[in-house]
Amino acid sequence: MAVSATPDDEKYFHGNVSTEELELALRLAPIASVQNRCNPFEKQDFKNGLVELGAQRGITYIPHSPWAATTAMCVYLSTPSCGNY
After folding, report:
1. Exposed e or buried b for every residue in 44-64, given b needs 16+ CB within 10 A?
2. For 9-17, which contacts have Cβ atoms below 8 Å and span 24 or more sequence positions?
3. What is the rounded CA–CA span in Å between residue 5 and residue 67?
4. How many CB atoms sit inside 10 A of residue 34's CB?
5. Terminal-residue alpha carbon distance, the chain
6. 8 A C-beta contact, residue 56 and residue 85
7. Which of 12, 25, 49, 67 could be disulfide-bonded to 39 (CB atoms 3.0-4.6 Å)?
8. pTM (predicted TM-score)
9. Residue 1, beta-bridge partner list
10. What are the distances in angstroms from CA 35 to CA 10, 18, 82?
11. What is the pLDDT of residues 44-80, one digit of tens each?
């Protein structure tokens, strides 16, 4: 997990933050956004309450989807090691 700060001192978390980590961080500083891995195969943040907690607190949820980028690159390059797309 990493934290970035802006000039207005809001904090941005990225790196698979858990609900518990977000709740702890909210006690320490204002949080503007959370970026976690989220793609068609990894939807745990919808099940564990992180997306809902962020919505309730006005925190932007930014899905990070390396799967989509990897798939697009494999299709573009027609890389055999990526499988058949």
Report:
1. ebeeeebbebbeeeebebeeb
2. 14/62, 14/64, 17/50
3. 27
4. 27
5. 32
6. no
7. 67
8. 0.63
9. none
10. 14, 11, 26
11. 999 999 999 999 999 999 888 766 555 555 555 554 5
CB under 8 A, 24+ apart: contacts of 63-71? 63/35, 63/36, 63/37, 63/38, 63/39, 64/14, 64/35, 64/36, 64/37, 64/38, 65/37, 65/38, 65/39, 66/37, 66/39, 67/39, 67/40, 67/41, 67/42, 68/39
Q: What is the dihedral of CA 4, 16, 31, 46, to 10 degrees?
A: 150
CA 28/CA 25 separation, integer angstroms: 5
